[in-house]
């Protein structure tokens, strides 16, 4: 369990768990001082990522509309994903992510809306993108954007990648602020989002985030390619 | 529900002739008819079930029966809402919802109130509510893809999720539905078969105790047909419960390693 547990017997493990619950900030600070996460992995590494395209067979519906081609993005957080979401009381974060995703997708230009048009000025397709969070363990925007791209990936669009160091839900509760960096596959900056918070983001911090994102772009492009090529083989 | 024509001259019943004729997918006496997915009439779909699908939940399960894909999370026992009155037995709160892409045509994807209520009735006979007084256990189900027999799959998956969460139950609950298509009884129907059915029978069963927690019948059934249908369903439920039990055992042995 990182650096705190030396002897490994049951009593010291209980102390570590209690310490983690009672003093979460100090627990993380002691690990970060040694540049590792509590599970022992180094700070630059993100969590294991995988994509499985084509999981739902019924999901290729689209609608004909006379109002021009649009892409409607909806991010849903059903009650199964987290103990804080109740039926009838939707998560506050859901519409925020919907808007963030919608803005990222349109500003990155990854979808050519002209391709969705059928008869110019009269009829066009409307694409509905519905993303359901099944298990909320932090870094929701990252996972949502990745799944959105994988879903669109058969349309030959440039991949969009995002922030480094995915935090877990536990870590997000003690975070003071977050910086989200979105780059496209040629490392052009698509968006930079820092939603206020008690802490300022210095120039060097932002540059570090961008550098980590560039590295993550390379990792994710590789994963996407592998997923796509295995789909074609099937 | 089909009415009986000509029983009583002063009462009204829908005339069978005025009902819109749907071309049946088989002929009445046709025994050579094959199901769209090639199964036998009394053959259920292969079941893929896993527990521990959602880390954020106390217990969870994922089930895939052909094209019907369901994920269930259980939270609790946790504090009941402050507005609730004191209760010396526990409360079970169930909710079933569909994703917008679960059906072939995109839908609004809201809560399915009828299924939520039926899920509650199916489970409450099996859960030992006395073991968690004053608190609530929440069971949330999300249907990712609707491929027929949605509610039975939701119920079986919910029972597995409750077991994964460590909620005490009298027995695992397995559920199976049966469609009546003309003279044939077809078990574990897919969406297409359900749309042509003349009647349906859904059984939720605790095999070790040989007790039925819920029975739903729609359409017109003769007594021998119901008996045959029940027997088929009970057999299928017993087999399904065995698969669920082995899935739980596998999950515990892998976690011990």
From TrEMBL, chain A:
GO terms for molecular function: mRNA 3'-UTR AU-rich region binding. Gene3D superfamilies: GHMP Kinase, N-terminal domain (3.30.230.70). Residues 71-158, 166-215 form the Exoribonuclease phosphorolytic domain. Transmembrane segments: none annotated. Pfam families: RNase_PH, RNase_PH_C. InterPro entries: ExoRNase_PH_dom1, ExoRNase_PH_dom2, ExoRNase_PH_dom2_sf, Exosome_comp_Rrp42_subfam, PNPase/RNase_PH_dom_sf, Ribosomal_Su5_D2-typ_SF. Keywords: Cytoplasm, Exosome, Nucleus, RNA-binding, rRNA processing. GO terms for cellular component: cytoplasmic exosome (RNase complex); nuclear exosome (RNase complex); nucleolus. One of its GO terms (biological process) is exonucleolytic trimming to generate mature 3'-end of 5.8S rRNA from tricistronic rRNA transcript (SSU-rRNA, 5.8S rRNA, LSU-rRNA). This is Ribosomal RNA-processing protein 43. It comes from Morella rubra. The lineage of its organism: Eukaryota, Viridiplantae, Streptophyta, Embryophyta, Tracheophyta.
Automatic annotation (TrEMBL), chain B:
Its main location: cytoplasm. Residues 1-18 have a biased composition (Polar residues). SUPFAM superfamilies: Ribonuclease PH domain 2-like, Ribosomal protein S5 domain 2-like. Coiled coil: none annotated. GO terms for molecular function: RNA binding. It comes from the Eukaryota. This is Exosome complex component MTR3. The lineage of its organism: Eukaryota, Viridiplantae, Streptophyta, Embryophyta, Tracheophyta. InterPro entries: ExoRNase_PH_dom1, ExoRNase_PH_dom2, ExoRNase_PH_dom2_sf, PNPase/RNase_PH_dom_sf, Ribosomal_Su5_D2-typ_SF, RNase_PH. Residues 43-167, 171-232 form the Exoribonuclease phosphorolytic domain. It is found in: Cytoplasm; Nucleus.
